[in-house]
Structure prediction request, 339 residues.
Amino acid sequence: MNNIIIENGTKGEEKLGRISTVGKNSYGILFMGEEIPARLKGRFYEEDSEAFPVVGDYVKFMYNSRGDSLILSVCERKSFLQRPDQAKTGVMQYMAANVDYLFIVTSLNEDYNYNRIARYASIAIQGGAAPVVILTKSDLCTNVGRYLREVGQISDKVRVHAISARYGIGLDELKEYMTPGTTICLMGSSGVGKSTLINSLTGEDIMKTSAVREDDDKGRHTTTYRKLIELSNGITVIDTPGMREVGMANVQDGIDETFSDIVELESRCRFSNCRHDTEPGCAVKAALESGELSAKRYELYKSLGRENTNNHAMKKEISRWAKAYKKRWQYADPKTKRV
Prediction:
């Protein structure tokens, strides 16, 4: 997708752009350096919600310079990040598409949460993006090495850096990700320094920042919706609202890859249906007893797996209900609303 060429457009021509914002019934398309308003073609409402455009999607659209352009189709995605919507049990929230690196930003203060970082990493791996953990405000931490080691043990697919945007510490390590054509999505809680990080890396004051509240060490919400920004150096950034809770659903592959060492241990158990409890020849139990596998990491693996299974089952049930409801009204009399 990085080498797509977007040409000048005139009214009535089919063009290619990239979704920069998503509203309730409206979209913004980044086209020729400008954001233009757009709406969906009617057929989208007849398909599964996963077909709807999300921030980062490349779309084909009918250009209209005097009003809303019409989105015709979504191009094939190379990555797709999603999570359960905490307010709607079992319903997936589609977050971003065509992301190369997911910057999981967390500050080295009360915001730091090992479990949350592992959840973000699983979402990234499942969705096809590379997880990069950015530990901010390292100047306020007296034991940075401990956190670097702990996060590094989550998965061999996770990279981790400790930085201080305030003093410029560790920023040079991030330059390898800042190459033209790359898309970076930032996720993390409010006040962890996502906007400050981007401003520091680009040398431009392009992202609005807010101060951290002194009484509870938490930040104010600055970004209230997902937004794609194309920088002058050819890098694309997707900023997201702060999220303190991250659910799991439909990400078993991501969990398995994040905890690939435990999956490999399970394959070495004597019995294929081993519950890793009282069975003889259990490789997982042996690894726990020897210290090769930490109990904390194993409990997290089991917890995420259970949550993913339960949420995914609920999502499938809700989808079944929705399809049945939609099919019923498809054949209903428009006047009486009866089938």
User: Anything to note?
Assistant: The mean pLDDT is 77. Residues 252-324 form a domain with the Ribonucleotide Reductase Protein R1; domain 1 fold (CATH 1.10.40.50). The longest helix spans residues 295-330. DSSP finds seven helices and 13 strands in the chain.
